[in-house]
Design goal:
451 residues, disordered N terminus, Porin, two-stranded antiparallel ribbon, 16-stranded antiparallel β-barrel, mainly beta, 20 strands
Length: 451
């Protein structure tokens, strides 16, 4: 929580004001003195950033997170200094609330990202600069009842957004999860030659429409980013809670969550269903998907396991619906071996099946102007594909500084299948009915500090 001293603000205001006050007025301690001072104090009360006002609180929180990332695509390698990617990037959050009556409150959240070099959307083999700039990530107000739940309106995460990810309580969520934060925009190569496709084109959320690929990789709920919605969250009963949201043009989703501890085990589970209709590039069709995630930890030993699964139930254009699904597992040890804080050791593995992004060259999906890689039209076309990833890493928490440091290694493999032995007819894929892309390796070392 950040506090701004009111006395210091008054002193600063008086110093600034003193620059315009003549010497005669400065020496005048007559009847106008106190009235002028009271007027100045009232003005400062209305304009100075403080811990809220007399009715609504103000809390400032957030984190700063940066890393050094080494990558190798089999032909070229380099080292970049990057942020963590949209939704994980450095940010600050303004939150506050005021009590209306006993059991009822109102409040707000303003979440602003300071996106530095973004490996999720902008960095590739030819670009080491790609910051997303300063932008409003969330901005909404809410009404909350202790017994009836919470109603929120504005730009925020829908109920299904990150549902399967956020149950991960291992302390390794940031450096290791199923979204392609490391290499989504990096180009795919075959035998050292660029194909015109990138790694994100193999991990598409088809339920979003054939022209939307950002963030697919794993989290396909709620468009995987804050949206303009109305959201309702129930109170928590016995560790269980439900959420639902509706908005945009138009989408709706629901999610259920459980968290508890029994017999020396911690358990967290979340499941969500998401559906969208008439979103841009869908041609008026609907798309839907579901996801589930679970985390269990044996508290005495620190052994933990986490898993997530998601599948597209239908795509906005059935001609390009490959029945994409994705799964991810992680296991390891969370133990306090030093006075600094917990140390986390983990290994991870995941697959994304048939998440092909059908775009470039398509004429039947209502989005012929997009610039995506794989062609799913015609006799020579992509018919499916797969992306595999595995890795291992170490996280060290430093409790005294509310900080986490990590180092990790991740390995990625990708492939596509074509309808014809002469190739896929797009993305530089010719002369075969199956292509294995060159492997991609990433080593990351970074830190996140909360405030």
């Amino acid at each position: 929580m950040t506090k701004f001293g009111f006395g210091a603000a008054v002193a600063a205001g008086l110093l600034v004001g003193g620059l315009s006050v003549g010497s005669a007025q400065a020496a005048d301690l007559g009847g106008n003195c106190c009235a002028d001072l009271e007027e100045r104090i009232a003005e400062l009360e209305a304009t100075t950033v403080r811990k809220g006002n007399r009715k609504v609180s103000l809390t400032i929180s957030g984190w700063v997170a940066e890393q050094v990332m080494y990558w190798d695509d089999g032909t070229e390698s380099n080292v970049y200094v990057t942020g963590l990617g949209t939704t994980l990037s450095s940010h600050f959050k303004l939150t506050g609330a005021a009590q209306i009556t006993p059991g009822w409150s109102a409040g707000y959240v303003i979440h602003v990202e300071a996106g530095t070099e973004d490996p999720l959307t902008s960095l590739d083999q030819d670009h080491d600069d790609g910051g997303s700039g300063v932008r409003v990530h969330q901005s909404y107000w809410f009404l909350k009842s202790d017994s009836l739940g919470k109603l929120s309106v504005g730009q925020m995460s829908p109920a299904s957004d990150n549902a399967a990810i956020l149950v991960d309580g291992s302390g390794s969520l940031v450096p290791a999860n199923w979204v392609l934060f490391d290499n989504q925009a990096f180009g795919l190569r075959v035998n050292g030659q660029y194909t015109g496709a990138n790694w994100g084109d193999l991990s598409h959320c088809q339920s979003w429409g054939t022209g939307i690929g950002l963030g697919g990789a794993g989290d396909c709920g709620g468009f995987a980013s804050p949206q303009n919605v109305v959201r309702y969250d129930t109170p928590t009963f016995g560790g269980f809670s439900l959420s639902a949201s509706w908005g945009e043009d138009d989408m709706w989703d629901v999610a259920g969550r459980y968290a508890g501890e029994f017999g020396g085990f911690k358990l967290a589970v979340a499941a969500a269903y998401f559906q969208q209709n008439e979103y841009p590039h869908t041609g008026g069709d609907s798309g839907s998907n579901w996801q589930i995630g679970a985390y269990v930890q044996h508290v005495p030993t620190g052994l933990f396991a986490y898993g997530a699964y998601g599948a597209d139930l239908d795509a906005p254009d059935s001609a390009y619906d490959f029945g994409a699904d994705r799964w991810y597992v992680k296991a390891g040890l969370r133990q306090r071996w030093t006075s600094l804080g917990h140390t986390v050791l983990y290994g991870e593995y995941g697959q994304k099946n048939d998440g092909i992004d059908c775009g470039r060259g398509n004429t039947n999906n209502g989005n012929s102007t997009n610039n995506l890689a794989f062609d799913c039209d015609g006799a020579n076309r992509v018919t499916g594909g797969q992306l595999k990833q595995w890795g291992l890493g170490l996280v060290q928490e430093i409790d005294a500084a509310a900080m986490s440091l990590w180092i990790s290694y991740r390995h990625f493999e990708g492939e596509v299948d074509c309808s014809s032995p002469v190739g896929c007819g797009s993305a530089g894929l010719t002369g075969a009915s199956h292509f294995d892309f060159d492997d991609f390796d990433v080593v990351k070392a970074g830190a996140l500090i909360n405030f």
